[in-house]
Design brief:
Layout: H1 2-12, H2 26-74, E1 77-78, E2 91-95, E3 101-104, H3 106-113, E4 118-119, E5 126-131, E6 135-144, E7 148-156, E8 161-169, E9 174-182, H4 184-222
Antiparallel strand pairs: 1-9, 2-3, 2-4, 5-6, 6-7, 7-8, 8-9
Helix pairs in contact: 2-4
Length: 223
Amino acid sequence: MMLKWIHFLHESFSPLPTDPTSALTPESQNAMKKLLLALIKITLQVLLALGKIALKLFLFFVAVWVFMRIISIMDTRHMENGDKPHPGYMVAIFNVSDDSFSLGSLSQAAECSSRGDCYLIPRQKHGEVEIGEYSNLAYDLLEKTEHRSLIQTTVSDGDNTYWYTYSIDNNNVIAPIKTKMMHYAYMMLAIGMAIVCFLLFDRFGPALMAKLFGLLKRQIQSK
């Protein structure tokens, strides 16, 4: 009886095994290893899928940004080619008293030429004024010679931006040259173009890339 109590106390107060899996059977240990490997594999697959989605979204937004710039360039109007300017042509009008400026229409600029309280040829190369939280007006003196000045005005309202380029001579005769804009409507067209490009790439991209790599490999082997 005494030997049984000694054996019981020895088992009760003996230290626990440091390795928790040492008390498991080999089959249980293999099952835990397989489960751990499966969890790691699933995690890596999820991270890879999320990475692919993030990369595609990034490339999609880059494509939209590029297409918007391309559309803006294609929609640029050149008056010397007979193009009709974008609506709301604005030129810079300066106040004689404090050299502040505002943007006005061509008719307002013509009225300024007959008054003595304003002038049309800027004395500084750049000026900008904010109107509200998102809108601003600006002008840039792009070039100035003895007889002619080249000026660009910018009108931005937060959603759209317009650029008007014109020349003015010493007699305050204004000649519109070019208009350009970045309009919110361009975004819808750019999104459509980006979607078409991505669909075409998903359909024909892998085969095209395989052909390009094959051609490159043959070129390298032939050298």
